[in-house]
Amino acid sequence: MSGAGRLRTVVAALFALTVVAGCGYGSERVDTGADVEPSGPKLSVDEVRVGHFPNLTHATALVGVHEGILQRELGGTRLSATTFNAGPAAIEALTSGSVDLAWIGPSPAINSYTRSHGKSLRIVAGATSGGVRFVVDPKKIKTAADVKGKRIASPQLGNTQDVALLDWIARQGWKVDPASGRGDVSVVRTDNKLAPSAYKSGSVDGAWVPEPTASLLVAEGAKVLLDESSLWPDRKFVITNLVVSQRFLTEHPDVVEAVVRGSVRTNAWINAEPGRAKDSANEALRALTGKALPDEIIDGAWPSLTFTDDPLAGTLGTQAEHAVRAGLMERPDLHGIYDLGTLDAIRADEGRPPADDAGLGVS
């Protein structure tokens, strides 16, 4: 086996360990958080299980669950929600059948689709763009050049922010072993909820993280070195998609339609009522974590987020290229990763054009 092949084998093994660990400590079963009970005729299952993160980049799920929007679309079929700390853990749950649909970032979706030879999942809708920042200790890092030799946190090996950080490091001309995180910059995989204490203790000098973690670090004295949206054309890039296992999509298209419709309607409500939506997302976080975000934290984080059911498919291929350059995977074939038929039917009902799948839709 070549050196590159051995590296990918090591990365895959480490990836497997992280996702297995993530399904234990890294996941938590939660109730719907809403007063809406299942009502009316059941769909083709008694219960649908969805996964998401306690992050503001997953506000579509936070608000949709908390406000009961998703449950109302499901009628008599009960909604059951589980939270995860990073995408690889959510993917493992989707693969094992522990959840049926999940809101996740692009990198874990790409990895799962590639490793399963196109058989694991489909992306059925977009959810969020933006909401990711690279924050650093201003006493140690004043410019991008100062990052060399420092310890920078990312949420988990192979997750979307980890890939983005590794790609940014490579673009500076520096070398990092993707499996161990060692090199010209030390990439320290750190659970989002532990990142503020790691920064405060000096264990890390910065972090490439989603909201609200980035704003929580800023409250600890960190400064924003860059907003990831500044690296993308039109400042738009997919950070959260809605995915479904192919088995569940084939067997229960009516349930998938209800969840997609609920996701679309949730984003419409968020965009129409941003103040109420922000409060709802914060109340959902309080229910999940035991503590709401201070006003200054959520007020600072919310404007960096764009909520859209457009999956921004054109940016997915670019993120896959980032993973390839980072040494986390070979060049993937992503044809068929999108199935936007249900989303497009919903958009057509609303007088909107179909979403662009960038040529990566099912045949």
From TrEMBL:
Gene3D superfamilies: Periplasmic binding protein-like II. The keyword Cell membrane applies. It is found in: Cell inner membrane; Periplasm. InterPro entries: ABC_SsuA_sub-bd, NrtA/CpmA_ABC-bd_dom. Keywords: Cell inner membrane, Cell membrane, Membrane, Signal, Transport. The keyword Cell wall biogenesis/degradation does not apply. Its main location: membrane. This is ABC transporter substrate-binding protein. It comes from Streptomyces edwardsiae.
